[in-house]
Write a structure and sequence with these properties.
mainly alpha, Four Helix Bundle (Hemerythrin (Met), subunit A), 7 helices, 0% strand, globular
Length: 200
């Protein structure tokens, strides 16, 4: 997998290297998701929270470095999506394991976010035989809101940030689904559906 797949109009890929700083950060996040599972299983809520925030920060950092160091690539975009999905899965496991009772009344919000993610991902696989890796502006905003919601949940403060984050994730997933529908070929690092419509 060398990142040489043709890019759609408006996409820019500079590096075909696999071993880059952004990709290393993605691998750290991917491995971190595996680390979070036993931490959650042992009920170490405080440690889980700080580790999650650290790994979530690598998602922001790898994207910035990929642009700054001219190390953007299709493989990096895919790896980033895999790492994000793994970290989300670890978060859900940890939240249910350690704060499941608090989440009982929030099941519809969580189900909407997870359900739309599943539909969006399956649509990408069905149409392009590849994992969607759009990294839209809305997705980055959703990550920030999710991180805030995690702090509120694990600190046992309020649950309304969780609802806000779930709504943002749901809308982000709907946008990703629509991008898949209107895109003629697989693409990544898409700012928004507006940019797809403009490029097409």
């Amino acid at each position: 997998m060398n990142g040489r797949r043709p890019a759609a109009k408006g996409d820019v890929y500079i590096s075909d290297k696999l071993l880059t700083i952004p990709n290393i950060l993605c691998l750290i996040r991917l491995a971190g998701a595996l680390v979070l599972v036993p931490v959650a299983w042992r009920g170490e809520s405080e440690l889980f929270l700080w580790l999650f925030l650290f790994f979530a920060a690598t998602d922001w950092l790898d994207g910035k470095l990929a642009i700054l160091l001219n190390q953007r690539s299709i493989f990096g975009a895919r790896l980033d999506s895999w790492a994000d999905a793994a970290l989300y899965a670890a978060l859900i496991f940890g939240a249910l394991t350690m704060h499941g009772q608090a989440l009982q009344g929030e099941s519809l919000w969580v189900a909407a976010a997870l359900g739309t993610y599943l539909v969006s991902t399956l649509a990408g696989f069905y149409k392009f035989k590849l994992w969607p890796s759009y990294h839209t502006r809305a997705a980055k905003t959703s990550w920030l809101l999710t991180a805030i919601a995690v702090v509120f949940l694990f600190r046992e403060w309020e649950l309304w940030p969780l609802r806000l984050a779930a709504l943002a994730v749901t809308l982000t997933n709907i946008e990703a689904f629509l991008i898949t529908l209107i895109s003629p070929q697989w693409r990544s690092d898409v700012t928004s559906i507006y940019h797809v419509l403009r490029d097409n």
